[in-house]
């Protein structure tokens, strides 16, 4: 057998064992849903035997499309855009979201190209092991688990606060809602993956309908279609102006600082768009469907996000007292759409927005649970976490991982104190930084993968299942841009008179964490950077060729709606 790297071997001997294991899985778990046995690279040590894990491929193309879309549409758009408008102004908000969307596309096409070739659970965690350095796989894996261990309770708390819009905490304690929603999140993720897919599909449809309705409502208000309201046009772009003098800094520097703050807000809003690859092992025909989602999801997100924030800039002035006073409430009153509707005398909109944002928050918690548990499972597969995390239930769900991550939902009870809003905003800052770190790592791993293809003379356009466009330039631009945003995210604390310890920790805690994990593991395990010639690119090309996917079935239904998931 020919060694690949670190003593790992080619597929020659294991090919028969893999086929036998897959056939056994189909016999043991007969169902209309295909079962996948994850491909593995084994060591040459004779005492190590293959250990197979069985996943039910219950996610279809429409599920993957909608999961990716649902993961990007949530409180960041419905609520967070108001905060960005207050700090960056209408033009700052619009340009910030537009540029962030363009930069995120480089991340999406990078992770999609690798996942189309290597459709394994854990996504970037497993790919970092093979295409960069086992130490990076360990570091980013635990960074992701940490990210969602903080992010999931934050979303659960957000959902509880949204319920208080109708049921005050004086009547029912927030602890009750955190408990109920937390248990529902755990229960949902213990069921068959198809159940999760159908739920996320339904939530995404609700959010899309809400966005379309809000855009239409916004255009009607702006163009004078509401009785008693004048035509606004671009009035708020001229008065109070296109940008905001952030922190009262005079001149162009103050306006630029305000604009720059919108990038961190937009990054949080777009977080999760890379999630199309997290459940690759549970996706039918991943080598075809993941690239499809990558190509189409970006255009839809840009339309929904950019068009939505554009309408927001037309409806609400950046110096609106309602906008500034609503920050920190955490319910529908914070949404610029609701403020616009209130100004126009439309009273039912706050209830509709609050209801759909509630489903968005819980949907985000579900999506985070999926990502974190598959990441934890991927860590266990690579030997970076205890082996008992590999246990799966009869539905093919890594239930031990779900239970371990679910324990951290208890962090949500921290917000029951008098400083609940401080804790919640701190959670969000920590998640935003972790997201930027993950995007940078995806680009780094992809660039190593790209240059390995060149060194091994693998033609990406003919030999890979899918070759992303604009590479490697897209990955380089996204890496440098997000790296810059990451390093400057907490710049306000360095301005004289604006030091804030909590803001500083929220902006930069993740940097020593990721470097500590990486170099700590590297020092303990003496790992080395995987050489370009040693990366198993041809190994996975061979697997893709020997395991062709079934032919694509035509999408049934009205073409106008089928574009959402086809």
Automatic annotation (TrEMBL):
Pfam family of the protein (one): AA_permease
Main location (coarse class): membrane
Keywords from the UniProt entry: Membrane, Transmembrane, Transmembrane helix
Localization per record: Membrane
Chain coiled-coil ranges: none
Organism whose genome encodes this protein: Lentinula boryana
Protein's name in the database: Amino acid permease/ SLC12A domain-containing protein
Key word Isomerase present: no
UniProt cross-references to InterPro entries, sorted A to Z: AA-permease/SLC12A_dom, APC_YAT
Organism taxonomic ancestry: Eukaryota, Fungi, Dikarya, Basidiomycota, Agaricomycotina
